[in-house]
Amino acid sequence: MKIRRWVNALGVLLLGASVSVASATQTNIADGVSLKPDVSITLKTGIGEEGMYFQGVGGKIDGRINPEIKVPEGAVVQLTLINGDGAMHDVAIPDLHVKSDGVVGRDSSSVFVFRANEAGQFDYFCTIPGHRAAGMEGTLVIGETEASDLTGTLDDISRDPADVPAAIGDRDPKTVSVAMKTVEKQARLADGTSYRYWTFDGQVPGPLLRVREGDTVDLTLSNAEDSTMIHSVDFHAVTGPGGGAAVLQVPPGSEKSLSFKAIKPGLYVYHCATPMVAHHIANGMYGMILVEPEGGLPPVDHEFYVMQGEIYTTQAYGQHGEQSFDVRKLLDEKPEYYVFNGSVGALTDKHPLTAKVGETVRIYFGVGGPNATSSFHVIGEMFDKAYEWGGTSSAPAEHIQTISVPPGGATIVDFELEVPGKYVLVDHALSRMERGLAGFLKVEGEDAPEIYNPGGG
């Protein structure tokens, strides 16, 4: 196969006293092949009692050993090979004249793109001497499926914005136990489109944690056995090195613990802080913790939890099939998707916010990022109160149209509902709506023509 271009990307971050280097990823692009694949396939190498093998990652082949891979005839296919065992491997489809580069070292990867022009069945296998005989072979079938069929039945990882713990109110400080689990899973990114998310507790954002100023939090972080990465958590509400991440780097199948005292009230972001940190955040590893002030916050009728994030895929926005992460777009800060609560349609089709005329609404809003600042706005409403930067110790600003929230930042906004209808949550950098960033607040109740009269007069 002739190679037109290759990209080598390294991420380096200093954490404590050690330096970690993210895996190198080399991408080979065959001459004449579009850079916007229709189908993405990921295989991970392994060695076990059954010998050597390829294991499917994501979509219908997730977890399958030497899976039969089906793609549509004429599709542009991106195949990613991940080294899961440390030995040297590659993958080739000789009848199609395509082959990956060798991957050496655990978590290294190689990507190649080709067009599936010829219908039929084709062997794929590792060409390293002895590896095919040891079990590393499977079948590629071209022409028996549609690209939109490759995602299978997908989980919805988007968190319902109504998933908010009850207010704490007026109580004395105490010790609060919190258990969180990091989970990697293939899930719906948009209709007909999937992505392998990295999550806290299997959803994006992670759970909204709620404690009181002065509480001691006993936190246990576990990492699922089938995870491919070490994960961690950095709480912006923690006073201590790395926000706790310095001691909470958890390998797959393990757990670690930390105790901290919530000494300052406010709404704080937490996120994974394992190198490359931005990669872990972009894959969905962010959430918030509310540290209520003594006596609690003023009561409202409804509380909602909304976070904004970015997803960086190799394929263009709107492509169907399994999408793969693109490190170059991350470093260039050019996401394909902007999302509320993890996915396109999370707050429009899946979990719209609902309330009634005369009720008061509070939105806990944060930006996981990792890169873009949000200009948070609800079209057709004003924020009666806005706790800037998530702080609760100062008096809130009043009658605010749009509030700026940086990556890793938060705000709390309160407003009363006077007029029924559908209100749209946006980032007022409005081109981002075209890349998935919108939510609905549906308000029921009697019309109020003295405030808003569509007919005029």
TrEMBL record:
<dbReference type="Pfam" id="PF13473">
    <property type="entry name" value="Cupredoxin_1"/>
</dbReference>
<feature type="domain" description="EfeO-type cupredoxin-like">
    <location>
        <begin position="63"/>
        <end position="141"/>
    </location>
</feature>
<feature type="binding site" description="type 1 copper site">
    <location>
        <position position="236"/>
    </location>
    <ligand>
        <name>Cu cation</name>
    </ligand>
</feature>
<keyword id="KW-0479">Metal-binding</keyword>
<feature type="signal peptide">
    <location>
        <begin position="1"/>
        <end position="24"/>
    </location>
</feature>
<feature type="binding site" description="type 1 copper site">
    <location>
        <position position="280"/>
    </location>
    <ligand>
        <name>Cu cation</name>
    </ligand>
</feature>
<feature type="binding site" description="type 1 copper site">
    <location>
        <position position="271"/>
    </location>
    <ligand>
        <name>Cu cation</name>
    </ligand>
</feature>
<keyword id="KW-0732">Signal</keyword>
<protein>
    <recommendedName>
        <fullName>Copper-containing nitrite reductase</fullName>
        <ecNumber>1.7.2.1</ecNumber>
    </recommendedName>
</protein>
<dbReference type="InterPro" id="IPR045087">
    <property type="entry name" value="Cu-oxidase_fam"/>
</dbReference>
<dbReference type="InterPro" id="IPR028096">
    <property type="entry name" value="EfeO_Cupredoxin"/>
</dbReference>
<feature type="binding site" description="type 1 copper site">
    <location>
        <position position="428"/>
    </location>
    <ligand>
        <name>Cu cation</name>
    </ligand>
</feature>
<feature type="binding site" description="type 1 copper site">
    <location>
        <position position="285"/>
    </location>
    <ligand>
        <name>Cu cation</name>
    </ligand>
</feature>
<dbReference type="GO" id="GO:0005507">
    <property type="term" value="F:copper ion binding"/>
</dbReference>
<dbReference type="Pfam" id="PF07732">
    <property type="entry name" value="Cu-oxidase_3"/>
</dbReference>
<dbReference type="InterPro" id="IPR001287">
    <property type="entry name" value="NO2-reductase_Cu"/>
</dbReference>
<comment type="subunit">
    <text>Homotrimer.</text>
</comment>
<feature type="domain" description="Plastocyanin-like">
    <location>
        <begin position="341"/>
        <end position="444"/>
    </location>
</feature>
<feature type="binding site" description="type 1 copper site">
    <location>
        <position position="272"/>
    </location>
    <ligand>
        <name>Cu cation</name>
    </ligand>
</feature>
<dbReference type="Pfam" id="PF07731">
    <property type="entry name" value="Cu-oxidase_2"/>
</dbReference>
<keyword id="KW-0560">Oxidoreductase</keyword>
<dbReference type="InterPro" id="IPR011707">
    <property type="entry name" value="Cu-oxidase-like_N"/>
</dbReference>
<dbReference type="InterPro" id="IPR011706">
    <property type="entry name" value="Cu-oxidase_C"/>
</dbReference>
<keyword id="KW-0186">Copper</keyword>
<dbReference type="GO" id="GO:0050421">
    <property type="term" value="F:nitrite reductase (NO-forming) activity"/>
</dbReference>
<dbReference type="InterPro" id="IPR008972">
    <property type="entry name" value="Cupredoxin"/>
</dbReference>
<feature type="binding site" description="type 1 copper site">
    <location>
        <position position="231"/>
    </location>
    <ligand>
        <name>Cu cation</name>
    </ligand>
</feature>
<keyword id="KW-0677">Repeat</keyword>
<dbReference type="InterPro" id="IPR033138">
    <property type="entry name" value="Cu_oxidase_CS"/>
</dbReference>
<comment type="similarity">
    <text>Belongs to the multicopper oxidase family.</text>
</comment>
<feature type="domain" description="Plastocyanin-like">
    <location>
        <begin position="184"/>
        <end position="294"/>
    </location>
</feature>
